[in-house]
Each structure stands twice: as structure tokens, then as C-alpha cells.
Amino acid sequence: MANPSRVAVIGSGISGAVCASLLAGKGVSVTVFESGRGAGGRMSQRRETMEDGKELFFDHGAPYFTVNHHEVMSLVGSWEAQGLVAEWKEIFGSFDRNTGKFLDFEKEGLTKKYVGVPGMNSICKALCREPGVETKFGVTVGKINWLQDRSLWSLTGLDREDLGQFDGVVASDKNITSPRFTGVTGRPQPLDISSSPELAVMSQDIPVRSCFVLMLVFREPLLSIPVKGFSFKNSEVLSWAFCDSSKPGRPCLSPDSRVCS
Ligand SMILES: Cc1cc2nc3c(=O)[nH]c(=O)nc-3n(C[C@H](O)[C@H](O)[C@H](O)COP(=O)(O)OP(=O)(O)OC[C@H]3O[C@@H](n4cnc5c(N)ncnc54)[C@H](O)[C@@H]3O)c2cc1C
Q: Model pTM?
């Protein structure tokens, strides 16, 4: 692509959203296609309404992120200035299942942890609204075809509807192209890229590992836990636990802070 003027980005997770924003900043007209209802992908936020009408919010993908590259740091700095992210200043540690003890307390601020505000999806939402980015939610791209005669990519939806033609296509989610991924938990079927055999072969080797997230709410604060996030030692099942309501910028769930998610 020497001078692409129209690019389709498949997926509005962090990689698709950042890519769309960078391309749009260079004057490219970008259309983001997203199967889900909103932006975020594995950095999305889930809303649940309790019986009494209270709303609960969970970051059910990445709980936070760290930065170790100066270019990314400057990008994150600009998001921080816009109020899209904030540092999560809490004490973290680990929990040894064998001894039942918390250990390895990490000093506040040793490794800066950032979260989206008010939810992890805030970054992707904002990037997908930037000038030059058009986002189509609830649209799953089913197939991409290379039109040799016109040097364009043609996209079709799951019901074979025409989604347009583009100079370039960015498939942001590795699951998009992996034939091993077959729509677990209602996610879309893998994208048909059979018209590009080279891509299809490359994508076969991308491993996919499933994981599950439990979203739990407690009526009382868990005072016996001395940290707001911890990893598990000596557990083959559990990896981490985090207290979402301790993150900055989360809506106050109850005045006495008795509800903790
Ligand atoms: C539980 C959990 C904890 C994590 N913890 C951390 C952490 O602590 N720190 C960290 O840095 N990372 C963490 N990660 C990883 C991080 O969340 C992901 O690496 C990152 O969000 C992936 O972004 P992405 O844009 O590549 O893909 P995704 O976020 O998966 O976005 C891909 C998007 O493409 C859409 N899509 C797929 N197929 C199609 C199609 N055919 N048509 C249209 N749309 C389509 C999907 O709906 C999705 O929204 C965690 C992930 C999980 C699940």
C-alpha cells in the first residue's frame, strides 16, 4: 500500500483501535468493523444490574496494563492527560495456596499500573470516535477477498452482505484468522481468508488458549485481604484476583462502600 486512502480495520480492541487512530491521524479514511456492541475487545467492560437496580461494572478482560517502552509511555501520557486512563495506586501481592498466606507485597508505584477510566474500554471507545474513524458495531466480517483487477480488498459480512472495498485491511484479532477458534462463548466464526492462501497458512500456527473470568460481588468489603490485586502461587486453576472497585474513577456503588466487585 503506497498511499492507501481507505482502510478497513477488523476489531475494535486495543490493537485495532490504536491502529485506526494512527492511520486516521495520517489522513487515511478508516472504517472499523466490530462484531460486538461496543469498542474494547479483551479490554471491555461489562455491566450487570442487581435486583435493587444498582449497576455493577466489571473489567472482565485485562484488569490493568503496564508500560515499558518510551513511545508507548508518551501515548499513555496523552491518554492520561485526556482523563482516559489513570494510575492504579494500590498494594499488590501474591497468595500461596499451600500456606494460605499473602506474600511478595509490591511497593506502591514500583511498577506503574494503568487502568482505563471509568472502564478499561474507555481508551478504545475514545480512539474509535476520533476524526477520520468510522465504526460499525454489531458487524462481523465473514470474508475478505482480493480483487486482482482493481487492486482492492472486498469485505463481506456473515450473511454475505457487501461491506465495501478498501485499499488495505487490518485484521487485529489473532482469533480472527485462526481456524482453531470456532466461536466459543458466542464469539464470531473465524474470518474466511481462503482467497489469500499465504495468510491462511500463516494463521494456522497461531495458538489460542482459553481462559475464564469470574465476576464476583461481595456485600461486605473483604477486609482480611491486605491487597487489591494478587496472583496465585501453587494453583493450576487460578491466576489472579483483582478488586475492580478499588480502581480510580469507578462509580461509587454504595455510599458506605459495602459493595465490592
Ligand atoms: C482475563 C484477561 C486478562 C488479561 N490481563 C492482561 C493484563 O494484565 N495486562 C495486559 O497487558 N494484557 C492482559 N490481557 C490481554 C489483553 O487484554 C489482550 O492482549 C488485548 O486486549 C488484545 O487486544 P486485541 O486488540 O489484539 O484483541 P481483542 O481485544 O480480542 O480485539 C479483537 C476484536 O475483534 C473483534 N472481532 C473478531 N473477529 C471479528 C470479525 N470477524 N468481524 C468483526 N469483529 C471481529 C472482537 O469482537 C474483538 O472486539 C488479558 C486478557 C484477558 C482475557
A: 0.87
